[in-house]
Amino acid sequence: MSEKKKAAYKRILLKLSGEALLGRQSTGVDPDVVNYIADEIRSLADLKIQIGIVIGGGNIFRGVQAGARGMERTTADYMGMLATVINSLALQSALEAKGLATRVQSSIEMREIAEPFIQRKALRHLEKGRIVISVDKEGKNYIVVKISDSGCGMTEEELEKIFNPEYTTKEKGVGPGIPLAFEIIRGHGGDIRVTSRKNKGTTFEVILPRERLNEVS
Questions:
Q1: Which of 114, 137, 160 is the last residue before a domain boundary?
Q2: What is the pLDDT of residues 1-15, one digit of tens each?
Q3: Rounded CA gap, 97 and 176, in Å?
Q4: Of 10, 63, 191, 200, which is the most buried if we count CB atoms within 10 A?
């Protein structure tokens, strides 16, 4: 008689790239890919793991790129978050079709389609075996540290390579500093965003979850 597989973790947070939902499409959401991802999540739920999910929106809209091209940054960020809502609803639909109770929570109020993000409520959903998909970046749940300069700036091509550990503008050696910092921040549930305009300067935004900061303090 084989032993029943046991999970190594009681609770996990899945970070899904918006681009992962593209499939073979150039934009939008591929239902077959969403269904495949839902099957994989169901296999985790069968192990009685509490599952939180954060999804990107890059398959629909990239706020960082729009901001770099001159769109007002707050507007670009809101548009990006709306893209993540679309992806979240698509995944919620696929999960619930497989019998998995799922809640979408958003820090932007839209009660008809998502619950307001409340940390204790999210934890309660997880404890009851529900999957929670969170749509949030800044606001009350995150702290953003901005670092700007007025230097030479970067091109769009350079921005796309900045987190690649093998990419560098140095004549000798490599530039692992930014990619290493990115991995550390991501490991703590945060993110790093970069906007830059050639001959105008560069801004780094380090996004950190307040909950983790409270744990440290």
A1: 137
A2: 445 567 778 888 888
A3: 43
A4: 63
